Amino acid sequence: MTLSTQEIQAFGKVGVLFGGSSAEREVSLMSGTGVLQALQSKGVDAHGFDPGQRTLAELAAEKFDRVFIALHGRYGEDGSIQGALELLGVPYTGSGVMASSVGMDKITTKILWLAEGLPTPRYAVLDARSDLAQVAADLGLPLIVKPPHEGSTIGITKVGETAAFQAAYDAAAALDDAVLAEEFVTGREFTVAVLGGGAGARALPVVEIVAPEGNYDYQNKYFTDDTKYFCPAVLDAAITAEMQRIAVAAYRAVGCEGWGRVDVLLREADNKPFLLEVNTSPGMTGHSLVPMAARAEGVSYEDLCVEILRSARLKMARVKE
Q: Does residue 220 carry a pLDDT above 90?
């Protein structure tokens, strides 16, 4: 896709926000570098900006006409930077303040999904007073323990026996004020990328993830070639359609827009899909799954970046003086 001079001028001066100060900084730097190069290759006047190294005052001084958010994790994917951009009046890609905040909180996301009748694994919220043995009995073993406000599988532990539960809790609690224990669903792992918003939100082809020994951790996500991906996933057409349906419903329930990715498990026993989490600012690295799904539809990485950039807007109505 070749952009006309008029389209390029309409974008104006574009900031690509990447890096930041979350635990996912390294991945964000890779994502943002890819996006920056892609936009520049299309002739867009794009400039990198790292909120982890520069201040909001400097962001305001750049006078960007719009920004592409390629930040992951806290302060970039949780509504913080989105709120700052709303105050500055700078249109931005992805979800707004509320949806970003909700999507970053796996507990609140689950509450919303369950209220909408959407399937997600059973769970318990833990604190220092929780009876871990009772939680293990209620949810069954193995189970998953995770910090609910981190991404990229950071701080996640699979607990196979009650004796290992406390250490898993401590590891998650070191990263978060709350800890989420979740029923372990045995089955295949998938992700569904979603573009657009509201009634116009649509799912891209489903991606199946086959990680070494089933361990799709931070290292296997971003830094090895051992994880295998199948896109479109080899699935019965009815299962594919249902997975895409609940992914779009989950995305819309949180209020997402622009783009996102919904992670899904397909239970081995009965091929029932279960929603795990929604990512409101997904990775855009060489290993990332939204670009992979787009390619399966014939959309290049560069064209995907342009499509996302086109959707940049302020989400809150501005009071006219």
A: no
